Request: fold
Amino acid sequence: MNIRYKSTRNSDITVTASQAILKGLADDGGLFVPERIPKLSVSVDELKGMTYQETAYAVMKEFLTDFTEEELKDCICKAYDAKFDTDEIAPLAKVDDTYYLELFHGATIAFKDMALSILPHLLTTSAKKNQVQNEIVILTATSGDTGKAAMAGFADVEGTRIIVFYPKNGVSKVQELQMVTQKGKNVAVVAIHGNFDNAQSGVKALFENKELGKELEACGYQFSSANSINIGRLVPQVVYYVYAYAKLLENEQIQSGEIINVVVPTGNFGNILAAYYAKQMGIPIGKLICASNENKVLFDFFQTGTYDKKHREFVLTTSPSMDILISSNLERLIYQAAGCDDGRNRELMRALNEEGVYQITEDMKAELKDFEAGYASEKQTADTIREVYEETGYVMDTHTAVAAFVCREYRNRTKDTAKCVVASTASPYKFVKSVMTAIDENYGDKDEFPLLEELKRVSGTELPGAIKEILNADILHTLECDVDNMEQTVRNLLNL
Reply:
């Protein structure tokens, strides 16, 4: 059965999957959601013998129903290839009593590669399907990882351009260097004088600017997004949760039908929403445990039912990809919790935009029963990295450590004995200074890049190709702008 997509703010308008991927954001500012979450057409027992690519097709064909089998398999084949440094694409590492789903073996050593390796192929295929003649301008805000992964995916892809905004001084040195050394004639990177929320809000405002849209059209351009607000980013993320369950089954680490819990370090809420969709598709997931750092807006929301970005400070942490106060993808869950009532959701989003806070009802809170939440302080994050290393020899990055701490705290608090899969979202090499300082505070006085060899020694792992690439690369992007100058910057880059 074909699945169409509707806006969380206007259920009357529906589009195909390829149209939703092309647009990125609905015209009314809402996010595209499938009119229903499809069920898997294969059993978990059938999944357990599949490769990652075969699993990807089994999952994505249920969502992207206007793609032909040939089109979708071609996109998958091009995405999940030798750019990943493991044959498994997303290996599971058993560390003590926890399974770490390593999502960082792609070209930019972060989980964003899992979706952004395929999005350019989905987008260009969508453009052909819909006879789009315009050049597609990918406009993206990043808290560190999405930007590089998107640029790597879209670099020199015919018929596209990509403009990435990131917060100056709000990402790690490795993350920044990965972005500013990115090659590609169609690539632009801009550091904004503000935080990620400023960048994200600015990008959304550009999407919603109707006059700018008309000017773009007249010049042969149209905007699309590579952020997780794009359904073409979200659907591929569902795959690795399905794959993880199948691998546990294949390795006889769980029984068929056994419930597992999933713990996800969460900023923009897309990664954990993908796990929720996997559960809705039929994967036996019990609790979806949302792990926050000191920017714990999501933790507070799940505790109280109040989403409040107004009455809190924005904290710069050692897990910068989670330094977010406006979790855009939460809107998709809120819409579902509201019984797919677009008017109710629209009012809540208006309140968030104008007043900085909204409160959901008790009946909506009851719809969120699958979710648990926890958070880790900076000290707890660092202590977790050190303790896990000392106990097991396994080295994790700061974001994964947030989830590992929350996982341990949840188990101690609830006595839940279900096996836990932690989404390991970045390589420790990406946050080498924070990781090495957590292991031994004496490393705190050393520069970041000499520590890479030290991490290699301590972890017993090879220096990733993504790190080797940037060490001697030329700086290609130096553009900066104020938050209120983002529109003019885009105009200048596109010669409007």
User: Anything to note?
Assistant: The first helix runs from residue 17 to 23. The longest strand covers residues 160-167. The mean pLDDT is 95. The radius of gyration is 21 Å.
